[in-house]
Amino acid sequence: MMNRTTRIAVIGRRYQSTVVAKNGNGNGKPRQSRSAPTIIESKQPEEPSLGESAHFKHTSEEALATPGIKFSDGHGLKGPTGRGRQTRRMNLYQAIRDALGTALATNPKAFVFGEDVQTGVFRCTTGLVDEFGTQKRVFNTPLTEQGIAGFGIGLASVGACAIAEIQFGDYIFPAFDQLVNEAAKQRYASGGAYPLPGGSLTIRAPIGSVGHGGLYHSQSPEGYFLGAAGLKVVIPRSPIQAKGLLLAAIRDPNPVLVFEPKILLVVEEVPVDDYTLPLGHAETVKEGSDLTVVSYGTPLHTSLRAIDLICNPPPQLVSFLPNALKPPNPAPSIQLIDLRTISPMPIIELVESVKKTGRMVIVHEAGKSGSVGNDIAGEVGRRAFEYLEAPIGLVSGWDTPVPLTFEKFYQPDVIRVFDKLVETLSY
Amino acid sequence: MRVDEKLTLLLQITGPPPNVPPKHHTTTTSTPLPTPTPLPIFPTADEKGRPLYVSGSQAERMARAGRMSSPLRRGTHESWWSSEMGWFNAVAKTIPTYRVLDEEGHLVRGSQTPEISQDEALAMYRTMTLIPIVDNVLYQSQRQGRISFYMQCAGEEAAIVGSSAAMLAGDEMFGQYRESAALIHRGFTLDSLMAQCFGNVEDKGTKGRMMPVHYSAPELGFHTITSPLATQMPQAAGAAYALKLDEERQGDCVICYFGDGAASEGDFHAALGMNSVLGGPCIWFCRNNGFAISTPIIDQYAGDGIASRGPAYGLDTIRVDGNDALAVLSAVREARRRAVEGKKGVLVEAMTYRVGHHSTSDDSSMYRPIEEVKEWSVVDNPIHRFRAFLASKKWWSEEDEKKLLAKNKSDVMRAFGRAEKLPKPKLGEMFNDVWGVGKGEEVPGVIMEQRAELGRLLKKYGDVWEPWRRERKRFVEEGEDVMDCDGRGS
Fold first, then answer.
1. Domains and CATH numbers, chain A
2. Contact B450/A170, CB-based, under 8 Å?
3. What 3-state DSSP class applies to A7?
4. CB atoms within 10 A of CB A68
5. β A393-395/B172-174 pair status
6. String of DSSP letters for A304-362
7. What does the DSSP 8-state code read for residue A177?
8. What pTM was computed for the model?
9. Which SS3 state, helix, strand or coil, does residue B156 take?
């Protein structure tokens, strides 16, 4: 690990070399229309893309050390052969496809279905039909989300393992009635009799914005399901998490919504064997003692980058840090927690962390009103009031629809999180 | 009434008074129920001894209508008793497809050419040839990352333009998302279209908020396109009902476009059900183009297409060759006449083929052979068919074709170049129109606080944080418009 000063120096060097390369290339004036908006050449290094986040596991050892990982064959990290477990590089959709394939192979009563699953819009289901289609367990449905959800409840009712896909989280609302009034309440209403033993329902849907989805391809609808006790809501942050949490969701007897962030370019080493990660538990991604940051899905990586900017501030941001946070003073110690399960919320784990750090910032992409963040802030505020040294911060999308052209200023981006972290730390 | 009589009555109605201990706590057997009065014997024969119910034709049944019992005359439709166990899965054995022109553009034997003037025909042809160029340019520009998304209407030009040409200026139009040609035919300018696709400062319809092709043009009666499917359908039923009751809008009509996939949504059934019961002039125009993204119609429905569902809701229904502009024009004209005169819904199913990919996010070669697509665009090309008709009327020549294509191309390129150079709207547009604000009212605090928070952050980091510095340059006023206030958010 290099210290802060060398890091800045390295960044400086990188910048210089880019400029040299660009100048060397120039033969004449840049062609630019007069009325075109002027884009001034970048003077700073590019912000790292999501895929470059330091958090992702790039070696088998790191991947296998994932906390809470439980291999379904019961042999632990050494595997049935005693020679260890294998991992393979996978992006998020490959990891999901791997989990679906595992679920279909291990349970003859498992079904994967939804709109266009035979081809797969995000390719999470591509090829599954060739492997399992002859048994009619992977199939296209007519285009009806309420139908898909209700169909899945019916399958589960008689003991099947239904894994349904809603093509975009934005299109889950026709299924809202089936999910909230039927799936969530079925066990309670039937005195625990339904679904019949072995029956389970999992609904997968991609959520979140990627910068060009606009109103109907960017929403984060998890907040709408907070009040639906009986449903579980899970949001993984990475390929390893996606596979483990999805398999756990599929094997959970409760109806589980798995909302997948659209971070398809991120690649990790993912264990190839059948494993699960625990539902209902948050995970501490980074330990710390001065501030608790809670996030889930894509914004978790944004938060990680913002923490990095505070601990290793680039020259242009140093002036925004109060003296106590500036080098050469030691960098603050910030704990980052991945919530993972939105409902039922692992609130006690968050409260324990805040009791230790005294400060909390929540980061998510959904708007503020009726959000997961407000729920957490309310609970933590009630339970850890006397431990808090600053108001609980919430960085979220604005309470507007997700606007296409403005998405970069809508998303809770790195600098907004940075600002809130500094504000909370220096309160 | 004597007091004890009253008491007995009261006991019969409400049970014993509260001070009397309940009997079932003390008695081991429950009180026997009173013997019910026997039901009257249902007559099975008339007074002359003839059986009351016999099978027979509907005519015979009508003759006996006075003696029918009620269950067979529910609602507006009637049935008759039958001793045969007669199952069925279709109302008509086959639903024919109406066409005027054959694949080569010749009039089909026995067909009647709809009344169409040279000007009308040429206007349709202009739109039909303009849209492929628009599509091509915008599709390619998405591929180069200059716009974020696009959807073409390749292959469906006749269905979309033919139906639009049959509508009048005061009509309301609810699109799904592949109807830009209908909008252009109603007078939407290329500049407006490009402005929406680029989300630039001239995008009056959606102010840069919506993805490309989500047009909105109230001045043309074109309701905002949203991505969820079939949601426009119950809305169209509501609009049609409003037209039915609005004395000033008698004679206006609604047209609602939807696809074979959207017809599987619950909203489709809700819409047709409500429209059939409540009435209101509405043309339900189904573009049956064979695919819902990658799902072929064989995975979408097992009945006889969408047209077979019209009679289920009591709607006048027709299936039409969607690649035959003349057939679509005359069918929708007649549909419009029926809808307006009867103040009711009419269903038109246009059979066509989606030659292009679903959208720029789709690669249709993954699920259908390219040969199939080629065959459709060569053997049954809606533009070629209509052009052959124009030529047979001596309304069109090679020379005209060359001139038109050149003009179309230059028009499109000019509008494209212009739209691309325009900046994005004011950044503050992100926060406008979330709630409507009446005169003398203020924008809700939740929005103003968040706008002010962004303003504060932009003032602080707008020049030093590179991703923001670069991004804000794309907007008119470079975000200065939200920097008029300072806020900490809520």
1. 60-276 (3.40.50.970), 282-425 (3.40.50.920)
2. no
3. helix
4. 15
5. unpaired
6. HHHHHHHHS--HHHHTTS-GGGSTTSPPP-EEEEE--EEES--HHHHHHHHHHHS-EEE
7. I
8. 0.87
9. coil
A1 lies within 8 A of chain B by CB: no
Q: Do B300 and A142 touch (CB under 8 A)?
A: yes
CB atoms within 10 A of CB A14: 11
Same domain, B168 and B296: yes
Which residues 357-376 of chain A have a CB within 8 Å of chain B? 368-369
CA atoms in the 13 A half-sphere facing the CB of B209: 22
Q: How many domains does chain B have?
A: 2
Backbone angles phi, psi at A393, to 5 degrees: -90, 150
Of B148, B149, B294, the CB nearest to A119: B294
Q: How far is A342 from chain B (nearest CA, A)?
A: 23
CATH number reported for the structural domain that contains residue B172 in this entry? 3.40.50.970
Query: What residues of B are in contact with residue A405 (Cβ under 8 Å)?
Result: 199, 208-209, 424-425, 474
- Size of the A and B interface in Cβ pairs below 8 Å: 167
Question: A402 or A31: whose pLDDT is higher?
Answer: A402
Count CA atoms closer than 13 A to B204's CA, side-chain side: 7
Q: Supply the range of the domain harboring residue B468.
A: 427-484
Condensed to tens digits (0 to 9), the pLDDT of residues B14-48 reads 555 556 555 554 445 556 666 767 666 656 677 78
What's the complex ipTM?
A: 0.87
Q: Are residues B283 and B300 in the same domain?
A: yes
Residues of A forming the active site? 145, 217
Nearest CA in chain A to B452: A398
